[in-house]
Amino acid sequence: MSVTTIREQFPVLDREVKGRPLTYLDNGATSQKPLAVIEAMDAYYREHNANVHRGVHQLSEEATDLYEGARAKVAGLLGAPSPREVVFTRNVTAALNLVAQSWGAANLGPGDRILLTEMEHHANIVPWYMVAQRTGAELEFAPIDDEGRLDRAAITEALARGPKVFAFTHVSNVLGTKNPVEDLIAEAKAAGALTVVDGAQSVPKFPVDVAALGADFYGFTGHKLYGPTGIGAIWGRRELWEEIEPFEGGGSMINKVTPEKITWAAVPAKFEAGTPPIAEAAGLAAAVDWVQEVGFDFIERHERELTAYALPRLAEVPGLTIFGPETTEDREGIISFELDGVHPHDVSEILDRHGVAVRAGHHCAQILMRRLGVAATTRASFAAYNQTSEVDTLIEALHDARRIFGL
Ligand code: PLP
Q: Does residue 336's CB lie within 6 angstroms of at least one atom of ligand 1?
């Protein structure tokens, strides 16, 4: 597998932006889609389109097979013991809301603690804040150290205070930090806390085995995994899915409805009210096949090489500060930085003139921004199709930004 072969499969990478070849370094926000994904969704609408589960006609059976086949592929990708433990959602935000509302509402009460970390995306803060408001539970944020890693001693202390749940990200979408998830889960379990992992930035980057990690819930979002928007998934331990009540009601999630009593369908249907994202599931299945064909060996090694190339080159730019670990051992190719004296929005606007797409802002992580002492950062983030020449383009564009701002 070579980057050239990979790039040929992404039509959008051929386009120009502002008269320059596109340099797409905004993969932390969403990745581009290979032809295999685009064609799978197109084929679904051209050849199979029907609603799932309820029909007894050929097209409905085909759509159901595609949808349930996608669940089996996701289960395989995550190392889930059974596809029945995988619930499809709109994205990882909906997945985390589902756990917070369904599990949280039943298990949290006044004074109960919800342990989060300072590096969480709002998707793993706001749902917990909302359930805390409803139940009287309290949020606690485990701190990070100055290099952008979790402060393990502080986590041990926080776990000793007996939180009911510890929800944290596998990889930070701002700092790139890869958290020691297996150890954190083991420690949380020993302290009796439920563990919920946000896998939005990890699942696209390296193999995840939920059974080996020992988590209770582990969610991710399809559009960062080279798949379509509109679909995400969450794996959870079967006993927990059986135990908790659904968060949304409607068609497909019931067993029997009478005026007096309604009973729920079996898991996972119990948590999938209404018509699900069927074309998106076909696209996600193709994305899972695609990453498995390319292989995480390649993806992980390639992104690590890009990161190892980019970190020192960025550090050489005068006035540029990188946030997060400066090694490639426990960090992924998500690099946030600040250019002294230039607002991140201005930096990204100048980069855009060079065809370079990056993200500027608080990255839905305002608690972390406060900890870093900044309002916003600029973030470059890699995927399997990026190449070192694109890092060079980024660096040239940053020098241009310095010139324009007279630095
Ligand atoms: N969690 C992390 C760590 C993320 O990076 C993101 C996306 O930016 C999300 C959650 C939310 O993803 P989505 O908007 O697809 O639900």
A: no
